[in-house]
Amino acid sequence: MTEHSARHDDEEARVGSTSHDRRTEIPRPVRANGISLCCATYGDPADPPLLMIMGQGTQLDGWDRSYVDDLVDSGFFVIRFDNRDVGLSERIEGTPDTAAIRAGDLSTLPYTLDDMAADAVGLLDALGLDRAHLLGASLGGMIAQLVAIRWPQRVLSLCSIMSSTGDRAVGQPDPDTIALMRRPAPPTREGAIEAAVERSRALAGKGFPFDEDAARTRAAAAYDRAHDPAGRLRQQAAAIAAADRTPELRRLQVPTVVIHGNDDRLVDVSGGRATAAAVPDARFELIDGMGHGVVPEAWPQIITAVRRNAARATAVPGDVR
């Protein structure tokens, strides 16, 4: 048994030892799109499903548990999961040459964002869900967009947070910020945690206080659960190789809300504005002072936008699942 699978089994055992109620997390591996994904579900399976898709290198608990509980209280059956190459989901072999990929040579690309979108659809299949509301952040927003583009019949509504269209003319990062994000991971646990805190500080918006202690606690928990810089690099390569989705977004007929902070130094707010402009009848929510990260102070505005957008979804006869 690998260390990765042992951790997964340990996590399942911890949850299996508790009594189950409407909020109990049930982390488990499922086969989706030919690989193993770790997912957790919350709430009443009879409620409309909402699939939360996290960003590059971020595990499922990057969605704070209080956010999940608020969504459950709002009437959703919530699913969060580790994307491929992160957390307790399956690792994909390969070492991408990101410089070559930027130049158009995709020979070292291990997989694409379309593959990651197919993972999300495969997860819905594995859970027996015909349709779901989608909530994606950063890279997760790009993946959610592709699910809506490729499988619109599986999507009830779309919420894209701090993401972009793939058009290189918009959503570009601040040079200093992207340079920091691309630094190699330190080799020690302590170094990796401090580097994660430094990245969090750089991404934090000026409109909200930066909680260094909370950032360090999150970084330590993420490291101890599953630390794998190589997986993050492969996800980054998939994002670099992605084509501009603008023409396909213009054909979407899915209720869409786009949310972005005006102090985002990793994905400039122009990326969010362009996404909202591309999708017919999309709504745009600007969060003043938010950087690249969902902060507790902004969550009430975000969850209100998600609920209103979900309410726009056309009612489907029978079981919404």
From TrEMBL:
Gene Ontology MF terms in the entry: hydrolase activity
Entries under Gene3D superfamilies matching the protein: alpha/beta hydrolase
AB hydrolase-1 domain residues: 48-294
Region described as Disordered: 1-24
Entry-linked InterPro entries: AB_hydrolase, AB_hydrolase_1, AB_hydrolase_fold
Sorted UniProt keywords: Hydrolase
Keyword Zinc-finger: no
Protein name: Alpha/beta hydrolase
Organism (species): Pseudonocardia ailaonensis
Lineage: Bacteria, Bacillati, Actinomycetota, Actinomycetes, Pseudonocardiales
